[in-house]
User: Fold this.
Amino acid sequence: MSTSMPDTSPVGPGPPRDPAPHTPLRPSRLLCLTVGLACLAAIASGWGLTRLATNEPLTDPARSSVLTAPFSPTREGPENARETVETAADLVDAAASFHITFTLTDAGTVPVGAAAAMAGAVPVSPPAPTVAHGHATYDAAAEPAFEHYVDNADGEEVYRYELDGRYVVTARSELPGLLVPDPPSAADRYLCSRTFASARLREVLRSSPDLAFAGAERAHLAWPGREAGDAAYRYTGTFTAMRGDFDDGANTLDAVEGAEFQLWIGPRGYPRRFDYTSPSGHGERYEFHEFGAP
Assistant:
């Protein structure tokens, strides 16, 4: 039997509060030409000059039109977990724009009072501290079309772009110039292109042995106006996540096996939130905001 829920998602939310908002910026024509035609491996210039930025802002994908197609990906309805997740991934890949915010956490163990003095460090489960947050935005009509920004707790900031068919990376301290990988690595293609938005869903489809429909509930978000939760269907299981990072001036990608996930998909078929935690305590939370009509 199919399960149906009304879509109570409000239209046109305000700007985000947590993580802190960041407005993607449009590069100048001269910089686009320099990067696109010269194909330099790196441009040795200061941080303030190497971000692809002028004072002309990109269109905010979060304010794009909301799609209104009904959610009917399979005859079985949302209970068919695999086909529902596959449909959600296809919808993300077809969107003309999107806005995703994310938070990365890392749990650990700490000593506790007298017990620690008597028996050494005692494992506990405090709230996992945030180690990074950021966003991924895409607008097919903009240049660069895709931006992936990460603000790390240690002060490092990393910007990744897809620009005119090429991938571009820059970082505040580790990479003070623009890097154009040639040829790009698997990590570059994963972290610098719009397919980053559907990557977690594709990983679930490819590697989860126990993907299951867990019922209808509300997906609670940090996005203003959504704290009360959006109507959604929840899916759970374990999978192999690809964990991206930036180390020694280059993008990296490592497989994390046995990660536990929760995925919320709205009645219109679009993902609303995705959480996962690795066996070592690393966690990632993604919130998917309005998608532009293709």
